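Why this split exists: single-chain examples teach little about how molecules sit against one another. For that reason, every record in the complexes split bundles all components of an assembly together and asks for one structure covering all of them. Below is a record exactly as it appears in the raw files.
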Amino acid sequence: MGRYIIRRLLWLLVVLLAVSLVTFALMHAVPGGPFNREKALPQEIIDNLNARYHLDKPLPVQYALYVYEVLVPQLSDIPPGVSQLDDALINIRLGERLWLKWMNFGPSYVSSSRTVNDIFKDNLPLSFQLGVMALTFAVTVGVPLGILAALKQNTIIDYAGMSVAIFGVSVPVIVLGPILVSIFGVVLGWLPASGWGAKPPWTMGLFPSEVNLDYFRYACLPVVALGFGSTAVMARLSRASLLQVVREDFIRTARAKGLVERLVITRHALKNSLIPVVTILGPLFAALVTGTFVTELIFGLPGMGKYFVTSITNRDYPVIMGTILLYALFLVIANLVVDIVYAWLDPRIRYN
Amino acid sequence: MAVRSDVLRVGAGGVPLTRQRESLWADAVRRLLRNRAAIIGGLIVVGLAILAIGAPVFAPKSFSEQVLTDNNVVPAWIPRVFPFMQPYARISDGYPFGADYVGRDLLSRVIYGARVSLTVALVAPLISLLIGVVYGSISGFFGGRTDSIMMRIVDVLYAFPTLLFIILLMAFFRNTYAKPDPGTVAYAISQLDQRTGGLLFIFVGLGITAWETMARLTRGQVLSVREKEFIEAARTVGSGNGRIMLRHILPNIIGVLVVYETLAIPAYISTEAFLSFIGLGVNPPTPSWGIMIADGAPAIRTYPNQVLLPAIMLAITMFAFNFLGDGLRDALDPRLRGTQ
């Protein structure tokens, strides 16, 4: 298991390198540069800016510099009392004035006073909270719904649950969002139609500093809009999986030895039926995390979504690279965690 | 848990005891026709296709003509449904569902919008199928080092956040081919894209990002068929790799692949709508439901009809394809009923 995880982590590095290479090539292939403005800047200024951000170097050199800055931890000597620049994502204090800085995603070209990590720090937590809440919503509503539908197969409960599920699969966020807003935000006026109930600074870098009823009122519509599709996926999958498991031999054995039906379901069927549900959590997490982009655009939330789209139109190279790399990292780690949980749930699976 | 009656009728090896053995396809068609939801879905899809093809006949007005004096007008029935509109709504019965913010007929735009969604529903799966099947069958058929290298590449592509990647791709296409010099290849491509209202690049973008699942599925299927006796038999009589692949393996696996591609259609439709929503999809004034939702969204508090009409059409289309896809899957592979 340990060797498997190490191999997967090495593989992760390869994947991230490949992702960064393709992204780098693609974004530099788009004509125009970050300093092309409607009102053209004097050539000397553009030259200076290009030199400042190493954009005058050949592309392979630029790429190598970028990878070096992100991947290789740097020691930096900061005298006490001097506030350190938050240019790296991970800052570890080693000594009196010695800091280890890792994952420096560079400056943003467009807002020159901010680094990509500043942007992450301010805007990523919102996307994170939205994604996590949507995932929680999908799991806590979808799985019980699916289990209930399976236990009451071919009854009105089953049909109702699966109708909700097919509705969820069929209605994308850009449809559900406006519909939810017009019903609950405009016509009924129960919930706020846009905005988010918390602002930076974030607690522990990710969480809202104050969680109250208002926070959840603001979160309600976007979380439901984003999570509904995944809820439906969870419900259908857990229903199908439980239906398959209850037909297995070991369930028949459990029944044959006279076990109470409640115990057959809770002890034997449920745990086994959850295995496919866990495996889909990785891809689902991926879908939700990137889905936050759509939701944020619809509900006007200041998360990463707007930044990513504007950074592309602005040719803000470090922001584009940083965002894609960070999300790719999320995906690969989510899949790794899922694989490990999978092996733990199902002892028949051994990675070697 | 009661044993289902149709399980009882199946004997050893899954051969039905009570009826004549049918071919796979006849059996599938029979099961599909018995599935009411799938039939309804199929009828809706056919209806939409007729609507899309006959758009010039069905649409009462032009989809691009702007009558600025008629901006945001609504027919008399809409303020009755949304009473809060009564103080400010301007009534004009020339538009069955109202006009948008520059005075274009919403109904006509929605009808023409069906063309975009249905073309995506037809072409995107074909591209994904083409790339995925070729890639996956090469990988599965040759196995060994070829297989592991090709599948590693797919693994890497899997790590791309698809939506972000497709946004980047679309920005790349839209900017690279914005103003090419006449006579170059880029110019020809951009002309083709202009003619299709921007659909060409949507297809390429969807195609590039969507084939990986199909490749994995194909590889798995090829691996399961590759070692069967009839393949060995074909090899013994001297068939080459190409012939075995095309004549023996492909016909055996294509059914499953097509079904899975059908299940993916709603995802393509919603991705196109999303790309158009953020302004990277079809070129205005080509009406796509995504663009219409984006145009209508700012006015959602005052003129909800502008966003609801395309939203409902999009939802109905997605429903129809989901029902049809589910029905097809159940019909071709009853063991998978209710999964995914």
